[in-house]
Design goal:
The protein contains twelve helices and 14 strands. It is α/β, with parallel strands linked by helices. The strands form four sheets. It has an eight-stranded parallel β-barrel with strand order 3-4-5-10-11-12-13-14, surrounded by four helices. Helix 9 links the parallel strand 13 and strand 14.
């Protein structure tokens, strides 16, 4: 009998062939000046199309949403055309693909932004992390300024417009990036939100931007084609919350549940790190508050993924680094075959090496 991990399911309006997803992975290979995805990305995503759902690398919704060199965007006609080639290639191989909508907020540098302006955030609190600037390498992020209340509707509109353009580009849906210490997370978590207006203070106020973005995106495209990623307990990008269970229970119960969304995608534990949670913290309890499909992520291997799906703890499991080095990851997992080892030196930037040149199981066996 086929294990449930390898069987079809439905995420809102999106039918997928199995329960394995490509997690969003920044690869820094887009044209830095235009934000148009690299032609190499066509083959990169097409190679991985046997996964049930591919989630693209995070893609900025506006020039002011950019935080790293050579990341793609989804706000210009040229970017739409670049993505069309990718979605078409994935669909030709029977895959499904959504784009992750991104505004980095304070995790940026003035050299990456129009006119050398300062990054924006919920508050003017610098992040003690570095970002990557072309020709300069890793540099400290620039001190941000607090978004004015009258600027926030424009940011929300950028998310909605990016979702519309995603559909023009042929995507099957979008994933709102509200995780890992980027803009929405910077409003949601109280670690840096020092605002005293309608977007700060109480959990209701701090979750307001999240709710407005979700509403706007769902007004632009069908709710069943909208997913969201959250990282309740992660301290990624120098950001924590003092009471994440309360914060995220409110966010999920008030703004996500009962909306007909495609899925909710949680980083379980520390982003790219330990899965263990502090006492009183629970992914399962947060998941109970959401009535749609649940996508699990962070440190999953074959055995853990099979157990999670079989037990009902997850509907889909997203794999990150294993999917970089194994374009045929679903086939390898189904066969219990060994996995290629990735080369971290090729994860960010570069060309085909470590991007589109990993061997598939079929090629390995043929050799």
């Amino acid at each position: 009998m086929t294990h449930p991990l390898f069987t079809p399911t439905r995420l809102g309006d999106i039918e997928i062939a199995n329960r394995i997803a490509l997690a969003p992975l920044t690869r820094n290979r887009a044209d830095d000046a235009t934000g148009v995805p690299s032609p190499l990305a066509v083959e990169y995503y097409a190679q991985r199309a046997s996964g049930g759902l591919l989630i693209t690398e995070a893609s900025q919704i506006s020039p002011r949403g950019k935080g790293y060199a050579m990341t793609p965007g989804i706000y210009t006609p040229a970017q739409v055309e670049g993505w069309k080639a990718i979605t078409s290639a994935v669909h030709d191989r029977g895959g499904r693909i959504v784009i992750q909508l991104w505004h980095v907020g304070r995790i940026s540098h003035s050299d990456l932004l129009p006119g050398g302006e300062a990054p924006v955030s919920s508050s003017a609190t610098p992040a003690a992390v570095k970002t990557f600037v072309k020709d300069r390498g890793f540099v400290e992020t620039s001190a941000p300024r607090a978004l004015r209340a009258d600027e926030i509707p424009g940011v929300v509109a950028d998310y909605a417009r990016a979702a519309e353009l995603a559909m023009e580009a042929g995507f099957d849906g979008v994933e709102i990036h509200a995780a890992n210490g980027y803009l929405i997370d910077q409003f949601l978590k109280d670690g840096i939100n020092r605002r005293d207006d309608a977007y700060g203070g109480s959990v209701e106020n701090r979750a307001r931007l999240l709710g407005e973005v979700v509403d706007a995106v769902m007004s632009a495209i069908p709710a069943g084609r909208v997913g969201i990623r959250l990282s309740p307990f992660s301290g990624a990008n120098d950001l924590l919350d003092s009471d994440p269970m309360t914060t995220f229970a409110h966010a999920i119960g008030t703004h996500l549940a009962g909306r007909g969304m495609a899925y909710m995608h949680l980083v379980e534990g520390q982003t790219g790190g330990p899965r263990e949670l502090a006492e009183g913290q629970s992914i399962a309890e947060l998941r109970k508050l959401f009535d749609g499909a649940y996508m699990a992520n962070n440190g999953y291997d074959r055995a853990l993924a099979m157990t999670a799906v079989e037990s009902g703890a997850a509907d889909v499991v997203a794999f990150g680094r294993p999917y970089i080095a194994n374009p045929d990851l679903p086939e390898r997992l189904a066969a219990g075959a060994p996995l290629n080892e990735g080369d971290p030196s090729t994860y960010y930037g570069g060309g085909a090496e470590g991007y589109t040149d990993y061997p598939t199981l079929a090629k390995t066996q043929a050799a």
